[in-house]
Amino acid sequence: MATVLLAGGAGYIGSHTAVELLNAGYDVVVADNYSNSSPEAIRRVEKITGKSVKLYEADVRDTAKLTEIFSANKIDAVIHFAGLKAVGESVQKPLMYYRNNIDTTLSLLEVMAEFGVKNVIFSSSATVYGEENPIPYIETMKRGTCSNPYGWTKAMMEQIFEDAAKADTDLSVVLLRYFNPIGAHPTGMIGEDPCGIPNNLMPFITQVAVGKRDHLTVFGNDYPTPDGTCRRDYIHVVDLAVGHVKATDYVLGHKGVEVFNLGTGTPYSVKEIVEAFERVNGVPVKYEFGARRFGDLPEFYANADKAAEILGWTTQYTLDDMCRDSWNWQKNNPNGYRD
Ligand code: NAD
Ligand code: UFG
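That is the input. Now the predicted structure with UFG docked in place:
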C-alpha cells in the first residue's frame, strides 16, 4: 500500500486524517514541529487504530530535515496541513504567516521534486472565495479578495501549486477547500486542542460548557440572515478526514490540478449551533450578543457536488453528531492533550 507523508499531521485535521488513512490501509509518516500540537495526538491515533505511525519532529520549512525524511521513507503522496491558521493573529503578524505558510509549501515542493514525488494534497480554505463571490461557493468561481493575511497565504499557495503543475505536467495536485470543521473522533481520544483563548466558535462553546470561560460572545446579531447571526457550513472532522482518503486515492491516479470543496452544503447560524449544542448535550452555554468581528462574512457555504461526483464523497455526520463529539472530546480532556 502507498505511504503518505502528513506535513503538520499532529494537528486537529491531520490527526483525524491519519486515523482514516491507516484504517483504509495506507502507511502514514508524520512531520510536525508541534507549534500548535502535541505528539500525544499521534500516540492516540496509534491507540485508536492499533497501527503505528512514523513520527518526525520537524519544521517543514527545513529542506535538510525533509531530505532526511524522504530518504528514509518511500513517500508516494504528501498531504500538506502544516500552517498557521489564526485569522486575527495573521493581521497582527502578517510576516510570520507569510514566512511560515509559504515557506513550508516551497520547501515541500522542492524536496518532492528532488525525490520524484508527484502527488500532493493541500489544505486550502473556503476563505479563498473572498468577498465577491455569491453563495453557495463552487469550484469554478475565481478566487476573490481575502480579508486577512491568513486567507491570502492560502490563495497564494494555491497559485504556487498551479504554477508548479504547469511547469511539471507529471505533478498531481488536489486543492481541498475546507469549510468549517468541528467535532472530534467519536472515541473522544483526539480532537481540537487550541492554545490559549480559542478563535473559533466550537472550541469556545465547549470551553464555556466545561466552565473554563464564563460566556460566549456572539459576534453580531444584525446580519441579513434569518436570525441575524452569521451562517457557516460546519463539517464533522471525521467526514473531512474521509474526504482526504478519497482525495489520496484520486491524487495517486491523476495528473494536473483539481480543486474540491469539502463542506456539507448546509449552513447553520451561530445561534442554531449554540442551541443544538445545549439540546444534544443537556448542558447550558451562557452567551451574550456583541459587536460584529472584523472581516466576518454574513454567510457562506459549499456547493459540494464535485466531490460527490468525482471523489464519491458525501458527508455522513449530522449537526447533532458534531455537537455530541465536540463535547465528548472536551469533557474527557478538559485540558486537551495536557491531561
Ligand atoms: P492545526 O494547527 O491543528 O494543525 C496544523 C499543524 O501544522 C500543527 O500541528 C502545527 O504544529 C503544524 N505546523 C505549523 N507550521 C509548521 C511548520 N513550519 N513545520 C511543521 N509543522 C508545522 O490546524 P488544523 O485545523 O488541523 O488545520 C490544518 C490545515 O488546514 C492548516 O493548513 C489550516 O490552515 C487549514 N484549514 C483549517 C481550517 C479550520 O477551520 N481548522 C479551515 C480551513 C483550512
Ligand atoms: N463566532 C462567534 N463567537 C466566537 C467565535 C466565533 O460568534 O467567539 C462566530 C463568528 O463570528 C462566525 C462563526 O462563529 O460567524 C464561525 O467563526 P469561526 O471563527 O469558527 O470560523 P470562520 O468562519 O470565521 O473561519 C473559519 C476558519 C478559517 C477559514 C474560514 C473559511 O477558522 O480558517 O473558516 O474556511 F479561513
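Residues 85, 87, 125-127, 151, 178-180, 199-201, 204, 216-219, 230, 232, 270, 293, 296 surround UFG (ligand 2) (CB under 6 Å).
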